[in-house]
Amino acid sequence: MPEQEPKVRARNFDEVPLGYSPETAQLEAGRCLQCKKPSCVEGCPVQIDIPGFIRHIKEGDFSGAIMKLWEKTSLPAVCGRVCPQESQCEALCILGKKDEPVAVGRLERFASDWQRTKGEFKLPEKAAPTGKKVAVVGSGPSGLTVAGDLVLKGHQVTIFEAFHKTGGVLIYGIPEFRLPKAIVQAEVDILEKLGAEVVCNAVIGRTLTVDELFADGFDAVYVGVGAGLPVFMNVPGENLIGIYSANEYLTRSNLMKAYRFPEYDTPIVFGKNVVVLGAGNVAMDSARTALRLGAESVKIVYRRSRDEMPARGEEIHHAEEEGVEMHLLTNPTRFLGDDQGRVVAMECIKMELGEPDASGRRRPIPIQGSEFTMETDLVVISIGAGPNPLITSTTKGLQTNKRGYIMADPKTGKTYKKGVWAGGDIVTGSATVILAMGAGRIAANSMHEYLTVGW
Ligand SMILES: Cc1cc2nc3c(=O)[nH]c(=O)nc-3n(C[C@H](O)[C@H](O)[C@H](O)COP(=O)(O)OP(=O)(O)OC[C@H]3O[C@@H](n4cnc5c(N)ncnc54)[C@H](O)[C@@H]3O)c2cc1C
Ligand code: SF4
Q1: Is 159 helix (H, G, I), strand (E, B) or coil?
Q2: Ligand 1 within 6 A of 171 CB?
Q3: What residues does ligand 2 touch, defined as CB less than 6 Å away?
Q4: Cα(241)–Cα(335) distance, rounded to whole angstroms?
Q5: Most exposed among 102, 125, 136, 271, judged by the fewest C-beta atoms under 10 Å?
């Protein structure tokens, strides 16, 4: 797929891949063997009829392709861009054994972009009103999926979102150059056209509790609040000015548009020598954001080796092409500041890998005496996130596991509290967009059964 040149794109927030033309999409779709037992579908967490939608593209019926996609996903433009296809559907594509697998994700993106920009949009049919009211807490991919499914089944749905914008991580976390925000908004607009109500700036657990939602007449509640609580290193100097959690750094840039300063007056530290700690997708997004905010050098510092880096291969590749440096087998031991309390350097230690730990990855072990200092004026800590305890601490009867995540039945999404379902990152811990959507779909089916048959 054509992309913006690395040197050019590293300084702008426009989307990196430029998308397929109809001709290229049809050519790529023509490679699909239309397998009778398509293994790609087995690799898709929501079982999209992959050969089916690809066949429509091959035949030039792009509207038919999107209708096929919509049978299983309400966010195809998002999934086509951010799903880890290389470890899901594409990993199992039969062509991948000898050659390149069919570019399922790129074709999904093509069909949804074509529909949004060129096709006629027909709202799906809704079932007759049931008179039941559902509250969806959180507007990430999981909450949006529940809302979409239940509104189509005839229920009255209200989405409560703590931020001033809907979309969850799709809006506040994943940067514009990977997922344009207008695309997420377009998907939310469809939900609103279908009749879902959206209430922003509503922090459930504070503005209203879950029990107050029931008292206000809601018959069922879905909790899809994600796992957005930052995890820190707990090393000396971590509270110096110029040290952000990835969550705050990306939220300031994406949701609050610091990258369009001074048009938007969100303050953010514009570092010259930026260090990002961690090596997942969130770390790659932070590093590439720092470049676009004007950094002269950006370093990823990671305590394990390249083989253990959790980010998608494509994200690592894009980051390196843009000039992000990888400093592997390295870990910070403390941050050093100036007399104004601003970070100026980071003391690090070199690591080596031992036996695998509980995560299955080889355990990093510090090499004594290998300490050295790295200069930096901006550090972004991107080593993971956890569950925010606000809802669980204000709702009687919701049970959590020892890490603080809500316990829900994976087959239904039911929690231990009657009338309350949960899914997405708040149940599984940080995962993926498509898994959060899959959990939403499972819960929506179970909630519909409860609202029409009983618990
Ligand atoms: C920077 C970043 C990059 C990522 N990149 C990828 C990727 O490339 N591919 C991929 O598949 N996955 C990626 N992920 C992971 C993916 O985005 C998440 O797994 C997914 O968004 C989880 O969906 P969710 O609906 O459970 O929660 P979220 O998307 O976190 O949405 C939860 C929503 O609930 C709201 N909320 C929280 N508390 C309350 C409350 N008390 N009251 C009301 N609202 C509340 C939040 O503001 C938020 O809008 C990335 C994550 C991050 C952070
Ligand atoms: S496995 Fe590959 S070739 Fe076969 S149907 Fe799926 S995408 Fe097409």
Answers
A1: strand
A2: no
A3: 32-35, 38-40, 50-51, 93-95, 102, 104
A4: 11
A5: 125
The rounded distance, in Å, linking the Cα atoms of 157 and 147 is: 6
Task: Kindly state the tokens that stand for 248.
Answer: 């705050």
pLDDT digits (tens), the chain, 455 positions:
788 889 888 888 888 889 899 999 999 999 999 999 999 999 998 889 999 999 999 999 999 999 899 888 888 899 999 898 888 999 999 999 888 999 999 999 999 999 888 867 777 788 999 999 999 999 999 999 999 999 999 999 999 999 999 999 999 999 999 999 988 998 888 889 989 999 999 999 999 999 999 999 999 999 999 999 999 999 999 999 999 999 999 999 988 888 778 888 888 888 899 999 999 999 999 999 999 999 999 999 999 999 889 998 888 999 999 999 999 999 999 999 999 999 999 999 999 999 888 878 889 999 999 999 999 999 999 999 999 999 999 999 999 999 999 999 999 999 999 999 999 999 999 999 999 999 999 999 999 999 998 77
Atom of ligand 2 nearest to the CA of 51: 5
Q: For residue 39, which atom of ligand 2 is closest to its CA?
A: 1
Ligand 1 centroid distance, CA of 174 (Å): 9
For ligand 1, pick from 433, 434, 435, 441 the residue to mutate: most ligand atoms within 8 Å of CB.
433
